Amino acid sequence: MEQVRAALVFFPLKEKVEQVQPFGQGHINETFRVTTAKQEWLLQAVNTSVFQHPEIIEAHLQLLLKHNTKLFVPHVLSKERTYHITAGGKVWRLQQFMQNTYAPDGCNDDQRKEVVKGIAAFTQSVHGLSLSDFRPTIPKFHDLSDRLLQYEKAKAADPLHRLKSAKAIVEKLDQWKGIANRFEGLVRKGLPLRIVHNDAKSTNVLLHQNDNRFAKVIDLDTAGPGYLLFDFGDLLRSMLPDVRENASVNKVNISRERAKQMQAVFLDECGNLLSPLEQETLGFGGLYMTYLMALRFFTDYLMGDIYYRVNHPNENLDRATNQCAVLEGMLEVSIG
């Protein structure tokens, strides 16, 4: 905790820090809950192995937080007037802890509607910003062709000899490669590039505890250029299944009606900003993002769990199995 307390010195807190505790179950960044006499904060150490250019995130935060002061959680400017500082070899930022809110992990119909409203609000808000001011914080983050290339390289390398025990998943992942070709065809047709969240899952939206209404959009590290089907696809991927992402299951029941309800809410909130092609391809985003995540989890499993944190040796394999089941469920009910 010495590193954490050393980082806090760079931020102008008015009260003495009383307690610091690890917080959350994030895959990438380290997060700590900081308690003072009258306030609580979240201190994050940015994973610079993943986000190798935190100065890009800084520039984006400066733009986003200035543009909309209500949609996002307030961040604390350091004594250097930046949101990020470097201390102890790590990059840190501090934000307000939002009392009486929560990030839903598993949603009922009311929660699902409010999460969709939150990402729609993000879409509306950033529509007025210039795309030229934003750069990818992780190059090729949602580039399915590149993820397929990494997947093929991982299969060829197989450093831990894990491939032989996962032939069933490989067969499924190989048969869905046409999803990448379909996406590339949409881009050629004129699918517009815009500013998107790029990690629009349910746990990145805060709801009020008292009435489950939308409160804030969080985790802006990946915000930047992308396609709207990335965000809506991640909503479908994260909220249609009735099982957690790390549950190893071979069958997931997917509700087409639920997907239609989510799309109706999204279009009602921000459909006037979308091109006809964007509106037509929202459902396809579910296939695209679920397949991409299945590839990412399985590739990481083959390479020795070097990207995602795992609690046991087969967790990334379980996640990949889960995403394959979700994708099959979507295809069965003709989503996308």
List the main descriptive attributes of the protein structure presented here:
336 residues; alpha+beta; Phosphorylase Kinase, domain 1; Aminoglycoside 3'-phosphotransferase, Chain: A, domain 2; 2 domains; five-stranded antiparallel sheet; three-stranded antiparallel sheet; 11 helices; 10 strands; globular
What do you see in this structure?
The chain has 336 residues and is an alpha+beta fold. The chain is built from eleven helices and ten strands. The relative contact order is 0.13. The model has no long low-confidence stretch (mean pLDDT 94). Helix 3 packs antiparallel against helix 7 (228-239) and helix 3 (109-126) runs parallel beside helix 8. The longest helix has 21 residues, at 282-302. It folds into two domains: 2-97, Phosphorylase Kinase, domain 1; 102-332, Aminoglycoside phosphotransferase (APH), C-terminal lobe (Aminoglycoside 3'-phosphotransferase, Chain: A, domain 2), CATH 3.90.1200. A hairpin with a 2-residue loop joins strand 4 (85-87) and strand 5. Strands 1-2-3-5-4 form a five-stranded antiparallel beta sheet. The protein is globular.
List the helices and strands and how they pair.
Blueprint: H1 2-8, E1 17-22, E2 30-36, E3 40-46, H2 54-67, E4 85-87, E5 90-96, E6 101-102, H3 109-126, H4 144-157, H5 167-175, H6 178-189, E7 194-196, E8 205-208, E9 214-217, E10 224-226, H7 228-239, H8 256-270, H9 276-280, H10 282-302, H11 315-332
Antiparallel strand pairs: 1-2, 2-3, 3-5, 4-5, 6-8, 7-10, 8-9
Helix pairs in contact: 3-7, 3-8, 4-10, 7-10, 10-11
